[in-house]
Amino acid sequence: MAVGDNMTPFDKIREYIDVDFREKVLPIPGSIVYFEKYGQCLGSGVIGTKNNIIVLHYKNKTKSQILSFEYDDILDEKDMRIYMSANRDGVIGSDSLAQGAEKHIFDIDLYNYNFKNSHEFVQKVLAYVDRSGDKKINLMDVPLKYNVVIEYEDEEVYREFVIKNEYLIEKEDIFLNNLRKEARDKLGVTKWLLWDYKNKFKMIPEPNINLDLKEYSNMQLNENTLQSIRIQREVIMSYLNEIRDESIPEVVLIKADSILASFDMIEEEYDELQEVGEDLGTSFSSNDSKRLNLLNLEAVVYEMKHNEELKNMIEKLGREFISKEENLNSSEKIKVYDLNDEVYGIEKSDNITRVLPNEVVNLVDEDLEYLFYAKYFEKSLLSYEISGDDEKRKKSPKIENGPVIMLLDTSGSMFGKSMRKAKALALATIDYLKEENRNLYILIFGGKGEVKEKEHKCGDDIKKTLKFLNKGFGVSTDFEEPLKRSIEILEESGKYKKADIFMVSDGACVIDEDCKEYIQSKKEALQFNIYTVITVPGNYSEDGFSDEVVRI
Fold first, then answer.
1. CA 191 to CA 536: how far, in whole Å?
2. What is the DSSP letter of 221?
């Protein structure tokens, strides 16, 4: 979470309600408190018997200690909010809880062995509520009834995600939620009210959260986002249930409901975008969806990726060449035996061609057949050991396919379904090339002088390429300039000298005879192919230079 002006929309609404409309309370021994600043929870503790607060205090990354603080040590800090356990009758606490917490003052915890944080410490000392007497409890042995922690497959990715997205609930808040549930069960806590310390609270203006809610549209829609939103939803629903019997203006409650409505919208859009995101190997925000017109593309991307004619054509793109890399794997190394090799010993192996006859006879006996296969899998069959050129190796050359230069007609006649097909085909091609670590050079074109270029390297952000594909031109179409430019790229760029040209248009490609002769001469000299896809099948007529044409 962020601080200051970057509090979440819910934090702003909750602060407004808690300060301006809800009751304020004073502590009693055994009350549970948690400390909050700018909507971020900083920790929790227990009110002791001597106007003190018992908390788990971190000395450093590996050592924490349970300490007692005077009220002023904590509450005098600017903008600090202290929430206290309560019910509809006011603040509640437990003398046995206060006395029990004080038994652990100065206890040391190393490497978070007993408590992950201060919330877990308070959860565990709540065990004193059910006890009587002076015996000190070993908190390490106290089980946690509520121990739900959100899990992420990659912790580093999660931390980076939280930093980039200010409106995500952090793990600390999940531990607080666990504590609130435990306090409900043990003490009957149904409300959390502000501590009216020195009458420090002043009325605050009603927040405008409309701009904040719009920011949710920029959140990347993936499983991490959804998990965080579900936790936030639980917190908001719990809070609304808590204040249901209080005199809160309806217009204020509507604002809180609008946050839940935003969450509903995010979850719905996630369901809609999940498949296209998986197809393209990335995640999108709600704004991405609207700006890039993703929902209209989803069905067409699926169609393009499952069209057999297109799949066969895409597989042909990029000419084969022998890789200069020599890092061949073991499957590319073939043993070659020389006829002059000689037997000079016996060894254990799984080489059937050299196995001794007395091992082979086990295959004839049904009872011993399993012994043969067991020794085979353990590489312990007695075999002849060969001398000579036994270790000769023959390396087979590594064959790779070249990149692709794609020409997309974005003239006015492509508007609508044809343009969606062209974009989807570009995305399907990128996805296919990505599997083989190959690059794509895209030229979008319209009329004369209307050509724009973008190289999409394997691993590049697909959203930037989608944004590029959304550009378009006027009514007319000129094919000669983009075709000549693509040949220039083949000639001038070493990276694309083994590329093929892949053109997508809605109709016949009309070029003059001089241009056709130029293209044919370059095809013979550079040995590339031109593959063409026509998005309106009835519009096609022979162009005189395409090696293969598919109509979709």
1. 65
2. B
For 348, phi and psi rounded to 5 degrees? -100, 135
Longest Cα–Cα distance of the chain, Å, equals: 103
Compute the distance between CA of residue 79 and CA of residue 81 in angstroms, rounded to an integer. Answer: 6
SS3 percent helix, strand, coil of the chain, rounded to 5, is 45, 20, 35
Strand partners, 443: 407, 453
d(CA 477, CA 504): 12
- For residue 84, CA distances in Å to 25, 81, 511 come to 8, 10, 80
Helix (H, G, I), strand (E, B) or coil at 252: helix
CB half-sphere exposure, 544, CA atoms < 13 A: 13
| pLDDT at residue 454, rounded to an integer | 93
Q: Is 400 left (phi over 0), alpha (psi -120 to 50) or beta?
A: beta
Grade residue 336 by pLDDT with cuts at 50, 70 and 90: very low
C-alpha 123 chain-centroid distance: 32
Distance, in Å, from the CA atom of 306 to the CA atom of 303, rounded to the nearest integer, reads 5
> What is the C-alpha radius of gyration for the chain, rounded to an integer number of angstroms?
35
Q: What is the pTM of this model?
A: 0.57
Q: Is the pLDDT of residue 421 over 90?
A: no
Share of the chain above pLDDT 90, in %: 30
We find that the CATH architecture of domain 294-321+400-551 is 3-Layer(aba) Sandwich (3.40)
Q: Are both 4-206 and 294-321+400-551 of the same fold?
A: no
- Please, what's the b/e burial string for 366-405 (b: 16 or more CB within 10 A of its CB; e: otherwise)? eeeeeebeebbeeeebebbebeeeeeeeeeeeeebbbbbb
DSSP codes, 292-311? HTHHHHHHHHHHHHT-HHHH
Give dist(CA 470, CA 289) in Å, integer: 12
Which residue type does 306 have? H
Right CATH for 4-206 from 3.40.1080.10, 3.40.50.720, 3.90.1720.10, 3.40.720.10: 3.90.1720.10
Q: Give the pLDDT confidence of 81-111 residue by residue, as tens digits.
A: 899 999 999 999 999 999 999 999 999 987 6
CB 272 within 8 A of CB 283: no
CB count in 10 Å sphere of residue 116: 17
Return the domain boundaries, the chain.
Answer: 4-206, 294-321+400-551, 330-395
Please state, in angstroms and rounded to a whole number, the distance separating the CA atoms of residues 303 and 300: 5
Joined tokens for residue 391: 């270790």
For Cα atoms 137, 142, 144, give the angle at the middle one, nearest 5 degrees: 150
Residues sharing a CB contact under 8 Å with residue 54, sequence separation 6 or more, in sequence order: 45, 46, 47, 48, 66, 67, 68, 101, 102, 104, 105
Look-up of token digits 């063409």: 532
125-134, 187-196, 213-222, 270-279, range with the lowest pLDDT:
270-279
Chain CA centroid to CA 48, Å: 44
